[in-house]
């Protein structure tokens, strides 16, 4: 589910195609939000076949790299016989990993503060049939193999590159209380099971901790599932990208959605 603005490379090489690869679907019970909170790191928990799905800020660089690989896997599709597809995926992941580290570390001027929020599960037999997911999105933490199955970034800044700019609370270089969600995605094997909502909910809690007053997200005008997710999360329409700009950037036209954090329940 690619539901928000993407800071990844804008277009794949000629070898890439819109043809969908054969999916390795895995039978997973519906995720259900739990009231419990993990004592380690304060991660929200979801239930999947009795297995805890942790939704939290990233902890290690190994986890961050796994999240980036999930984004590349989600946002780009290749024909089975594409030449150089794997090299292109690797190059995209390396470039985005470096850029994400720069944003998180504060090296990019426009970004005051950035964090990556992930949904992760222990590597288990129920996921083993999703071979590609397990091989590219796996990381090790405290001796345990885990898989990133959902991810997003929250960016405290006045705007995102090549995106519509939010108007609230107004441009004030001294008080950046505006934030944007980006790179929102959930592994195709676990879509439509509540994980996207849990990721956005966690980002709202973190935004409140940062003192954010206005939270934004971009969504493609033809991404109905994404729009439903954000509406459920409390976002409302603020504006949309002109058609000429979308054509110039070679992408679907995007809507800009806004959430008033002052009205969010504590």
TrEMBL record:
Any single Gene Ontology cellular-component annotation: chloroplast
Protein name: N-acetyltransferase domain-containing protein
Superkingdom in the source lineage: Eukaryota
Positions of the UniProt region annotated as Disordered: 1-20
Residues in N-acetyltransferase domain copies: 53-262
Cross-referenced Pfam families: Acetyltransf_1
Ranges that cross the membrane: none
GO molecular function, one term: acyltransferase activity, transferring groups other than amino-acyl groups
Native organism: Digitaria exilis
